[in-house]
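User: Okay, second chain of the day. Same drill as before: sequence in, structure tokens out.
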Amino acid sequence: MAFHQIEMLRIESEFHALAGGGVWDRIEDGLWLRRQREHAAWAAHGQWWRRTALGKHAMAEGARARNERLKAVVVSVRGCEACGKPFPVTASQHQHSRGRVCSAACRGRARQNVKLVHLHGERLPLARWAERYGIALSTVWKRRNEGWSVLKALETPVRRRSAARTGG
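Assistant: Same drill. Structure tokens below.
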């Protein structure tokens, strides 16, 4: 049981003897599945592979079931955190983000699109508001981290050459 955090095992009679927490669901006769996350449900079907054929990320975090590789489908209730689209239901898709973000292109936009701001009757990502006001996104994030309101961070102009000056 030391392969990875998420494991699928064929268990006949000793289900209650297993340690380790998580939620165990019965998928089919003798096959139990352990879920680590509340928002993702895993469905699986068996496919015979040699144990050496398993990659490092055989199923997001890795999966092993006594010389069987089980292809998994991540079905998320919430969908992608960045774009909000539901995940495609394909058995062969790797989910390296543990089912939080749908694709590599979406992961690149995740930081910009996660923070949605509601101003003037519109709800847009903070990056789009920064473009509209003509201010750098890093400046807005810095001001927000210092405790400024969103409106003040966007509307306050950037002072040029505002380095500390010595008296004289």
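The helical segments are 104-114, 126-133, 137-145, 150-155.

User: Thanks, on to the next one.
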